[in-house]
Give the backbone structure.
Amino acid sequence: MDCERAYRGIPVVYTGNAVKYADCHLSIIEIPKVKNYLDNLIINTVKNGITIESISIDQIYWFCNPDPVKITSESNLGFLMLNTKMNRDGAFVPGIVFVRGNCVAVWIEVKVGEQVYILLVNQYRTPFGDTIVELPAGMVDGDDTFANALTKEIAEECGIVVKGIDIEWLTTIAPSIGGCDELIRLGKVSVTMTEEQFEAAKKSVYGQATEGEHINLVFVPKEQIRDFAKAQPVLDAKIASAMAFYL
């Protein structure tokens, strides 16, 4: 049975596996990625002359297995599937959205002696069904800052420690704006490695084992990165975006 609540006067209906979390409605809509998305949606639909009739939360995926009774705005929410019923002057407006939230990615230039490399990561991606080489990246959890999220990802995925002030922020990209709210803030950092550190990094495995990550590092000489990118059967959109700005 569907369960109905409301947010800012708009009916919110819980369906599918989300029904069991309907009693946690006030906590769920206060989770930063949910609240940020809904607030942005409401503000911009008004600006664009679009009327929201209702919001349906169809599926909720967690990065844990929470007890519905214990859910708070700090709970580790993964993804939401929403279907928003909207119209513009009575005409239907598509409203299916995969809510992922804000993310970060980084172009890392590594200097080893006189050679500069672009540091990429290689890992298995289930949505792709194979391994793929990409920029180090990750989700912004809760109300974390972009800088803090990125420094954590660089440490976890690459074993490199940097500070927020070391990041040069360039742009924000929308990789799949037709179906997903994901926005990726793209940064750049430059680091130096000794030959010993470089050789050790190439042989090491990185990532959070508790999150199922198994990451190998790929070092591409900077002058070869365009040819490397062209040779990929499927090119990571983050790499393409970074190349457009940094090369």
Remarks:
- The chain is about 25% helix and 40% strand.
